[in-house]
Amino acid sequence: MFKNILVATDGSNHAKRAVKVAAELAKVHGARLTILNAQPLTVTLQDLGSISQARKLPGKVKAEVKRLEETLLLSPEADMPSLSYVPAPRSVLDIVGKRIVEDAAKIAKQKRVKRLTAAVEIGDPVEKILARAKKSKCDLIVLGSRGLGLVKELVLGSVSHAVIQRSKCPTLTVK
Length: 175
Prior knowledge:
This protein has helices at residues 13-29, 45-54, 59-74, 90-110, 125-135, 150-156, 159-166; strands spanning 4-8, 32-39, 42-43, 86-87, 116-122, 140-144, 171-174. By secondary structure, the protein is of the alpha/beta class. Helix 1 (13-29) packs across helix 4.
């Protein structure tokens, strides 16, 4: 039934469960599984906290994350730092994204997925997920129902909700 499955992951627990479900579906259907991590161009203090806690980062990258956290705390919007955005350095995005897709690929390989592709893209997660699904001719998108950016989700609307609304193919959310 499914030939090309896209699973979008941000490394959160919901996303890890989505990777497991997508891998099972890919195995059962003999489908290609594409793992995508879409890193946003800007981050909040909460996002930085999630990044530093969720990933084992090299010392240089940890220092960059710490510098960004301090920048946010000293910004004019410091009274609401969790809602203040700063541009995220490409070095941080690349390393975090790479680690997230490596972790997801390990899960897929443990589930014995035979055809696997992994990618990290930088930009608006909704746009990147939809573009990758179209480019890869996916017939199913699998996402976690809630990711690492809880504050952003409450203020701007969730990535999973936006993908469901705009996707041209079936979309499965995993809780």
